[in-house]
Amino acid sequence: MGKRKLVLEDGTVFHGEAIGSEKDVFGEVVFNTGMTGYQEIISDPSYCDQIITFTYPLIGNYGINRDDFETIHPAAAGVIVRESCDVPSNFRSEETLDEFLKTKDIPGIQGVDTRKLTRIIRKHGTMKGMMVSDQVSDEEVMDRLKNTALPRDQVKRVSTVKPYVVPGRGYRIVLVDYGMKHGILREFTRRNCHVTVVPYNTTGEEILQLKPDGVMLSNGPGNPKDVPEAIEMLQTVMGQVPVFGICLGHQLIALASGANTSKLKFGHRGSNHPVKDIRTGKVWMTSQNHGYAVDEESVGKTDLEVTQYALNDGTVEGLEHKTYSVFSVQYHPESSPGPEDSNSLFDEFLDRIKKHQEQGGFPCQNAQTSTKS
């Protein structure tokens, strides 16, 4: 294996061995605390342009299989591990982590002190970084880091280009793809829903022309304020049909309702984040991957109310509209990877659709009044 180094924008340098693709890569360095699920994590489109640090020391020990991908074409910029396992042991394993990264043209580095790296990110926040050959000078890398901005078009690059249908005989769901994980489709097909997946920039009028029973907003990468098309769409759709948003979709609902979002210091990325529902008092363990959050103070000026909080840091994890059939969560109820505590939220969404139809399927109260400020 060749030598490779990771250079952070604060000047910190980590040396290690190259795995995966041979190309140099630039991105935002983040960390994920999950002990398992590395295949789902790397293939999660929400990691677009990010270099993922795995805090668990041994990655690749059960290999890569054909079933656990969350997208066909991973968008992660790179992977950082303490040790990459070359001899995986699992009956489903079909290739090693290194082979998979080479196939998908994703560079990686092993032999890094990931505990030290994680502590740096926790102290100073996520930051830009580059993985390059050891032959490249630190000065050259630092110059590139200072003069290169992180992209802001991640959603456009990971969203589907054209609409497509996953047939079913149940409720008709329009799923807006902002970087959708396949686990969301799996949950709807398990419930026999007829799902139409549409691009991120589909207008509200185009969605309503599809006569959906409900609209689902997917997860996705980047800053929600970089997707103004979604906010305009929601201001047309909310109040017409039930809406359910997760992760980025949750943040977009907040923005469309007049609330604000801001960047977290180092984000929530892992599969063991406790969330409390203030209506029931129940605590769920959740799978999370986001770098932005809804500002609680701004919610009080809207028609939304907070329904759930993160127990680790008190950030907003759930919202519900006071008038319309609209609700959202910041985490991933499709649980890929992670605990299945919150999987019932998909059933709650379908129950809301049923109730809406029992009431005649008409627009909600005040639906003809625009939510635009």
Automatic annotation (TrEMBL):
Protein name per the record: Carbamoyl phosphate synthase small chain
Segments forming domain Carbamoyl-phosphate synthase small subunit N-terminal: 2-132
Function per UniProt: Small subunit of the glutamine-dependent carbamoyl phosphate synthetase (CPSase). CPSase catalyzes the formation of carbamoyl phosphate from the ammonia moiety of glutamine, carbonate, and phosphate donated by ATP, constituting the first step of 2 biosynthetic pathways, one leading to arginine and/or urea and the other to pyrimidine nucleotides. The small subunit (glutamine amidotransferase) binds and cleaves glutamine to supply the large subunit with the substrate ammonia.
Region called CPSase, residue ranges: 1-171
A GO molecular-function descriptor: ATP binding
UniProt-annotated catalytic positions: C247, H332, E334
Domain of life according to the entry: Bacteria
SMART domains named among the record's database cross-references: CPSase_sm_chain
Organism ancestry: Bacteria, Bacillati, Bacillota, Bacilli, Bacillales
GO BP terms in the entry: 'de novo' pyrimidine nucleobase biosynthetic process; 'de novo' UMP biosynthetic process; glutamine metabolic process; L-arginine biosynthetic process
InterPro entries registered for this protein in UniProt: Anth_synth/Amidotransfase, CarbamoylP_synth_ssu, CarbamoylP_synth_ssu_N, CarbP_synth_ssu_N_sf, Class_I_gatase-like, CPSase_GATase1, GATASE
NCBIfam families the UniProt entry points to: CPSaseIIsmall (TIGR01368), PRK12838.1 (NF009475)
Keyword vocabulary terms for this entry: Amino-acid biosynthesis, Arginine biosynthesis, ATP-binding, Glutamine amidotransferase, Ligase, Nucleotide-binding, Pyrimidine biosynthesis
Record-listed E.C. numbers: 6.3.5.5
SUPFAM superfamilies: Carbamoyl phosphate synthetase, small subunit N-terminal domain, Class I glutamine amidotransferase-like
Record pathway: Pyrimidine metabolism; UMP biosynthesis via de novo pathway; (S)-dihydroorotate from bicarbonate: step 1/3; Amino-acid biosynthesis; L-arginine biosynthesis; carbamoyl phosphate from bicarbonate: step 1/1
UniProt enzyme class: ligase
Family statement drawn from the similarity comment of this UniProt entry: Belongs to the CarA family.
